[in-house]
Specification:
Low-confidence stretches: 393-397
Largest sheet: 8 strands, parallel
Number of strands: 14
CATH superfamily: Aldolase class I
Shape: globular
Radius of gyration: 21 Å
Bound molecules: flavin mononucleotide
CATH class: Alpha Beta
Helix content: 40-55%
Distance between the termini: 59 Å
Strand order of the largest sheet: 4-11-10-9-8-7-6-5
């Protein structure tokens, strides 16, 4: 079979065929009835384009800067805990991102240490959860800084909802001999995935090395998750505290409301990602792209506004940029590529996005990604969601500012 694939949808089909059922299910993720995960993609197909049929066009440029990083296109790798997808995990993703000139977000729950990832892509931002005591949070930030992280992604949108109508994957705490036997029927049914691990001489590593503290061994994924669940949720002063203690840009990921976006500006963030955690958090939250325009209008002149959730093609990137995003982050799209063909599969996905962005720019007769504006996109009536802003009237919270 030709390892090259032409769409992200095809990468997903290959991932489904290649991965053991529980690993594939962990990437599908989502929550409850799946309303938000579905809307993240449906919303993009509700948006149209208003192309020109002629006009001057020469070279088209996708280059831009995001949080101080020069990038070849407005796409970043969103942080994900990818554990058992591929033996090279985040290092393969980082190499692909570096090869294509884009920045990488590395999850706290990643399977590879930050030092190895930054060696593969110096343009790496470390993603932090509010987890443990302030001293422990500072220790993890300090390790990221020493490793060379160029920014921090603070992810706060999480509500520990685990039920899924389509069933949740069974993920073991660790892989010992007995567990491997239990999972054998699934893994033996996926010989190519198994062969990739056998060739690498490793088994899936279910630890979270970036959550290690002091000289203690790296905790298991569930140990780290338990620590996070047991930590009282942060408030806006805590966000300001993070910004004050990080020498560099902080991106707050998971903002859906205008009032939160304004408070994030007050707290000192350099950017926000309008995001619902890829539909994995509070089901019923609208698609991120529906919330983007009003948030970008409110704070886009003060901080960088990014978006993540539902990006599967280059034209999705162009729609998001036209509606006010400086760049987007991608999650599942690169995970499907990684599962389908390792580093080359992630590069394949990035090339698909680049090609799609270029076609859209050509159709819209724009020479640079930074020239896009709302007139390029057809927005149906009722598409947008103004969260935290009731019919244009500032909410009581906003009035307090
Ligand atoms: C399997 C999986 C694991 C994720 N893990 C994290 C994580 O550790 N930290 C984080 O900030 N976001 C995490 N996310 C959310 C992504 O960063 C991103 O917000 C989301 O995937 C974007 O939606 P998309 O997958 O439709 O592109 C995860 C998403 C998935 C699918």
């Amino acid at each position: 079979m030709n390892p090259w694939f032409e769409t992200v949808a095809e990468a997903q089909r290959r991932a489904r065929k290649r991965l053991p059922k529980s690993v594939y299910g962990a990437l599908i993720a989502g929550s409850e009835r799946g309303q938000t995960i579905e809307d993240n993609q449906t919303a993009f197909s509700e948006l149209g384009f208003a192309p020109h049929c002629a006009g001057p066009i020469g070279e088209r440029s996708q280059a831009t800067t995001v949080l101080g990083q020069q990038v070849s296109m407005p796409v970043l790798i969103s942080p994900t805990g990818v554990q058992a997808v591929h033996p090279d995990g985040e290092v393969a993703v980082a190499r692909a991102a570096a090869a294509r000139g884009i920045a990488m977000g590395l999850s706290s729950f990643a399977s590879k240490p930050i030092e190895e990832v930054i060696a593969a892509n110096p343009s790496t931002l470390f993603q932090l959860y509010w987890c443990g005591s302030k001293d422990q949070i500072l220790e993890r930030m300090s390790r990221a800084k020493s490793a060379g992280a160029v920014g921090l992604i603070l992810t706060l949108d999480w509500s520990f909802s685990h039920g899924r109508d389509w069933g949740s994957p069974v993920i073991p705490e660790s892989l010992d001999f007995r567990t491997m036997l239990r999972f054998a029927p699934q893994t033996l049914a996926r010989p190519r995935w198994l062969a990739t691990y056998l060739r690498s001489g490793s088994i899936p590593d279910l630890t979270a090395p970036n959550m290690r503290l002091g000289e203690a061994p790296a905790p298991g994924f569930f140990g780290a998750y338990g620590e996070w669940m047991g930590t009282p949720a942060p408030d806006w002063d805590d966000v300001a505290w993070i910004c004050a203690n990080w020498d560099g840009p902080v991106l707050l990921k998971g903002v859906m409301r205008v009032d939160d976006a304004l408070r994030a500006v007050d707290a000192g963030v350099a950017g926000i990602s309008v995001s619902n955690h890829g539909g994995n958090n509070l089901d019923g939250t609208p698609a991120a792209i529906r919330a983007l325009p009003v948030v970008a209008d409110a704070v886009g002149d003060q901080i960088e506004v990014l978006l993540d959730g539902g990006i599967r093609r280059g034209s999705d990137v162009v729609k998001a940029v036209a509606l006010g995003a400086r760049a987007v982050l991608i999650g599942r799209a690169y995970l499907w590529g990684l599962a389908a063909n390792g580093q080359a599969g992630v590069e394949n996905v990035l090339d698909i996005l680049r090609g799609g962005i270029d076609s859209a720019l050509l159709g819209l007769r724009k020479t640079a990604i930074t020239d896009l504006d709302r007139d390029d996109v057809i927005i149906p009536a009722g598409f947008e969601r103004a969260l935290g802003l009731s019919a244009g009237v500032p909410s009581p919270q906003l009035a307090e500012r």
